[in-house]
Amino acid sequence: MKVRKSSILLAILIIIASLALDQTTKWAVVQAIPLYGKIELIPHFFDLTYIQNIGAGFSIMEGYGVAFFSLITLIACSVIVYYFCTTEDRRIQSALSFVFAGALGNWIDRLRFGYVRDFFSFRIFGQSFPVFNVADVCITMGFFSILLILWIDDFKEKRKWKQNKLQ
Question: Which of 82, 94, 73 has its CA nearest to residue 12?
């Protein structure tokens, strides 16, 4: 299946913009906040808190090492590229581009530093949410966009099927 040039261009733009935002915000936080330091932006709700995450998303799987996470990232990125090239749905391709950018952003940190720089810290109903970064936002946003697209398409298909059945 041939992927349109416009789809590839959009994907490249999403990836470059997302990576730039991710790496720039990580750099700025490291310059402004000492390790484990925080800047309270919205009292009792939102802080910038600089931590170094040696695990996966939300600090799970700590201690598995850079080689393990590099392998997982390479496999994930390969799967993303495969699905990007096998779908003609530009919405899915765009969402996959965000997931790819997020995976790449955190992988860059692991290769450069041996850890991922996280800094967004929320407290919801008094409970601390795991600290995360722009790359994590890209992964989450892309993943949930794919789920939403699939759900909406499924809903439309079921509605269309029911209408055809009634005729």
Answer: 94
